[in-house]
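tokens incoming
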């Protein structure tokens, strides 16, 4: 049973990588972009569900938390592109709650393991937990201030989908480049791609030139 879940998990991850590349390479807002984006979200949903199934068969709290963190990024990015009125619904609040709880659990687990044994895994938990908890809290803060529309909505969509892509690439790197140090394979894609996200957001959010 575990082998079947693992095969589906790998196939879904490969599909997610292809769909992410297709979404990035197609005109934003067009039909092919939306189709590629939806394919990416569905593939990542399968990745997450098979991760949870594998965790049930072979208990691993670390992978369980990482799975929730990864899908949260993709889900919130997809919702930002879908909700043109910029107003959250129940699924968005549920996702934020799940990520806040997951982020808190990652921070606690990371701190305990860091003081108990050290190593790379606690650092990974602390980094991803901080990112996830910060994003969840920022969602609630932004929603209290009003609807997220216009450039802010596009920037949120871009940020979260690219962050989800980082998670997908990280999974591929962890599996295929295991000879590298753990911190390099787990945090390397985040360090390399995050500046691109920041640069792209700056371009989106900058004021239009005055005539």
């Amino acid at each position: 049973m575990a082998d079947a879940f693992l095969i589906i998990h790998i196939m879904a991850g490969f599909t997610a990588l292809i769909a992410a590349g297709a979404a990035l390479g197609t005109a934003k807002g067009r039909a092919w972009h939306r189709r590629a984006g939806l394919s990416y979200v569905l593939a990542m949903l399968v990745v997450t569900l098979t991760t949870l199934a594998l965790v049930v068969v072979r208990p691993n709290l670390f992978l369980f938390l990482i799975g929730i963190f990864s899908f949260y990024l993709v889900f919130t990015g997809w919702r930002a592109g879908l909700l043109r009125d910029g107003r959250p619904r129940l699924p968005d609040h549920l996702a934020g709650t799940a990520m806040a709880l997951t982020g808190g659990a990652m921070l606690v687990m990371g701190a305990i393991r860091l003081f108990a044994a050290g190593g790379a895994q606690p650092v990974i938990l602390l980094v991803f937990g901080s990112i996830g908890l910060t994003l969840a809290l920022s969602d609630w803060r932004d929603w209290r201030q009003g609807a997220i529309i216009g450039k802010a909505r596009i920037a949120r969509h871009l940020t979260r989908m690219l962050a989800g892509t980082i998670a997908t690439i990280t999974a591929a790197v962890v599996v295929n480049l295991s000879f590298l140090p753990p911190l390099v394979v787990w945090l390397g894609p985040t360090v390399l791609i995050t500046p691109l996200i920041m640069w792209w957001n700056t371009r989106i959010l900058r004021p239009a030139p005055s005539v």
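note: Residues 61-205 form one domain.
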